[in-house]
Write a structure and sequence with these properties.
Elements lengths: L1 E2 L2 E2 H22 L3 H22 L7 H15 L3 H18 L4 H20 L6
Antiparallel strand pairs: 1-2
Helix pairs in contact: 1-2, 1-5, 2-3, 2-4, 2-5, 3-4, 4-5
C-alpha cells in the first residue's frame, strides 16, 4: 500500500529511524550511554531497512543490512556509507560491552545523523 507516494513500510522505517536518532540524543544528554548507543544503531538499521524495502532487497538480518549498505555504497560511489554504518555497528556493540566514552557516543550519534541524511535521499517518494 502506498502512502503519499511511498510504501507504508518504507515510511514506517524512516519514521522510526528519525524517532530513534532523537531519542539517542535525549538518552545521551541524560548520561545513558548504553541506551543512546542502541537507539543510534536502531536509527541506522531502520534507515537502511527503508531503502532496502523500497528497492525490494532483503533486510531481515544484520548480514542483509550490511549487504544493502555495500550495494548502496557501490551504486552511489559513496564509500562513506559503509564507514558511517560501521560506526553505527560499533554503537550496537557498545550497548552490550559499555566500552565507549560519552564523547565517542556523541560522535557516533552525529555520524549516524549524517548517514540518515544520505539514506533518506536514497528513499525518495515513489512516482
Amino acid at each position: 500500500m502506498k502512502d503519499n507516494g511511498r510504501d507504508e513500510t518504507v515510511e514506517k522505517h524512516l519514521s522510526i529511524s528519525r524517532d530513534f536518532i532523537r531519542q539517542a540524543q535525549v538518552e545521551l544528554d541524560k548520561g545513558e550511554r548504553l541506551q543512546a548507543s542502541e537507539k543510534a544503531w536502531g536509527a541506522a538499521a531502520h534507515a537502511v531497512k527503508a531503502v532496502a524495502q523500497q528497492r525490494e532487497w532483503q533486510h531481515r538480518s544484520h548480514s542483509h543490512l550490511f549487504q544493502a549498505v555495500s550495494r548502496l555504497s557501490s551504486e552511489q560511489n559513496d564509500p562513506e556509507l559503509r564507514t558511517l554504518f560501521n560506526i553505527a555497528s560499533t554503537l550496537h556493540q557498545n550497548f552490550y560491552e559499555d566500552w565507549r566514552t560519552e564523547d565517542f557516543v556523541q560522535d557516533g550519534i552525529d555520524d549516524v545523523a549524517r548517514l540518515l541524511g544520505k539514506l533518506d535521499s536514497l528513499a525518495p517518494p515513489s512516482r
